[in-house]
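Researcher: I'm comparing several assemblies side by side, and this is the next one on my list. It has 742 residues spread over four chains. Same procedure as the others: predict the full complex and return the structure.
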Amino acid sequence: MAKRRSNSRPTISDVASLAGVGAITVSRALREPQKVSPALRKVIDDAIRQLNYVPDLNARALASKRSDVVAVLIPSLTQSVFSDVVRGIYDGLADSPLRIEVANTGYDPDIEENLVSRIVRHQPAAIIVSGTDQSATTRQMLENAGCPVVQIMDLSDNPIQQIIGFSHEEAGYQMTRHLVQQGYRRIAFLTAWLSTRSSGRLHGYKRALDEANLYDASLLVQRGSASTTPPPIAEQGGRSFLSAQMGKELMYEALERHPDIDAVFCNNDVLALGALFACQSLGVHVPGRLGIAGFNDFDYMEAAHPPLSSVRIHRWRCGYEAMTAVRHRLDGGEIDQAVIDIGFDIMERESTLRAKPLPASAATIGMAVSD
Amino acid sequence: MAKRRSNSRPTISDVASLAGVGAITVSRALREPQKVSPALRKVIDDAIRQLNYVPDLNARALASKRSDVVAVLIPSLTQSVFSDVVRGIYDGLADSPLRIEVANTGYDPDIEENLVSRIVRHQPAAIIVSGTDQSATTRQMLENAGCPVVQIMDLSDNPIQQIIGFSHEEAGYQMTRHLVQQGYRRIAFLTAWLSTRSSGRLHGYKRALDEANLYDASLLVQRGSASTTPPPIAEQGGRSFLSAQMGKELMYEALERHPDIDAVFCNNDVLALGALFACQSLGVHVPGRLGIAGFNDFDYMEAAHPPLSSVRIHRWRCGYEAMTAVRHRLDGGEIDQAVIDIGFDIMERESTLRAKPLPASAATIGMAVSD
DNA sequence: TTGCGCGATGGTAGCGCTGCCATTATGGTT
DNA sequence: AACCATAATGGCAGCGCTACCATCGCGCAA
């Protein structure tokens, strides 16, 4: 290694002396150009280009007590729901100096608490966190973080600061309504495990069936612990707990335990896909003998044979909007809207369309038909 | 805002004076505990706990010219191949102070160059980057980054420092061999777009068919530009270019243009899934009339009806090993092995198993059979 | 006894940047 | 003409930590 001093990167004062100005003016030209006269700005820009100067972000973060890292807390890195969200967040930071640091809570509030306690001390520029089920401690740390905090993928009357998402309860309700309208009467709910958000969907399902006097608690078919606390993670290194294989097994189980069911509402498209394969292997006709609906509307739902109905949720947009909100506030803006509902769409496809549907008068909110 | 000074976080010198030692000793106790006597260490630990002291990472990064951020460069955030890899990387940093910053190159060398130039100046602890097709400039920046650099998801004779992955060429070759052995003669290659790594698979496919005197260049069915340079990205906000729907369309096209094909090797499982649905909708029997093979071995391949053959690649492990290598070197270790081949497995499933396979004497390298 | 190597500890001087306040110039107001 | 608000710029003093070198004491060889 050669001498540090001589060949190390140019600093802000190198630029300043080349441009013949004070260091602070260079700093200002970089961060608040409108506060520097155009003439000087030009001189400084030239000097920067000439020296190939790049600011040291660590120094900046230390001096300003604020970094340009946006921390993103999600329950799972591998579920495509969340990768789409992250993608939206990432796309939202284009043309900004912001960076993202991703952390995985594994659906575990304790892990989340731990991560937040670490993250908060890094002085992040902002924090984006999934859902509303933070522990009290976590919530308080986030409140005191001193930076914008945006919750995503759910709704709440009482956001930490701001929340962007949709109602899982309402989505579950609407999809179940659709099934009822199509004439299905014995509708099972298939799930691998119930996260807080999954439970919302289940509640919506129950509400819709209660309304139609069709609810039967025994039609909930699930795997793993029914508790809301611990995570079902078995992702490490291999198969995820939430898999098409699991959907297939749940479907077999459902048909065996309740031969009279005429539809299944799957908590996740991956399960719906597995359920479809199960039906195919058993020669159970979809949608004639059995209707199948999923949740998320992954791309293969439309391509399936038959095309599978699902609830399209705006994952990418959710992330993107969250980032937009963050940037707005980082630019000094106020919170316009503490709760932003980005909605969802019920994608009615062949897998739940029976020959003779009931009159489709109701069920209009947040609906759309694909193709 | 109250006075900064009074209520701000405790610093290292607060700890030092409470413990009655020099600040530097506290610093040392934190980073190189073995250099501090056990007695003092205890006193310092107590002081830390009492004050609830947490080091300021920005200050540390500035002073040491080294942060604890591991930069991860991947071509796509949404393809589950890469989310699995990221998950592996993430799992690999457990119990370390390291964090990950994810950046998305979108398969574009220019974007990659840009990202690297920014990242390098943040003084990351390490850089993990996908593939071997960096531009010359990018490569040079990485060489000069002054931190561990690990390439992943491919192999090369000439890694920047270290590479962990597998041979796409060999994988394509082995899978195609398997198809030939099963008696398939007119094997099409379906792809949405050819990344550098996809091209490797295609080469392997060609090699295997050449050997068997079965190669026919017209059986390459692809969509989008055939060029290797530009990215096919249309992910933003909606459907990905690489989708089951695309696989379905490619399958239709293949059957129309080449009614005599008896198998398809899909560059990606998502395409294979779409191809299966296309066959189902056309009443084309799989594997009797048509064999289908995919690549990646996503979880639904095994669950499909019929179960779909694929090349299982060790995505999670690849990320995990990369992180392990990084940590080894951050701990002062040398590079043990510049090139680490983690292999792959040919998963032979029903979708490519014909009634009368040829004697399965050959094709033994890196093989495994599921179920 | 002297000297020396070595482990343990501390002091000093920044790392490169920005917050705060001061200073100067400018132009309009009374 | 005196005054003042405002814009443009700069100086100083750290932000909290670590690199570097110095120091101290102790045990052991000569």
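Model: For your comparison table: Chain A touches chain B through 56 residues (CB under 8 Å).
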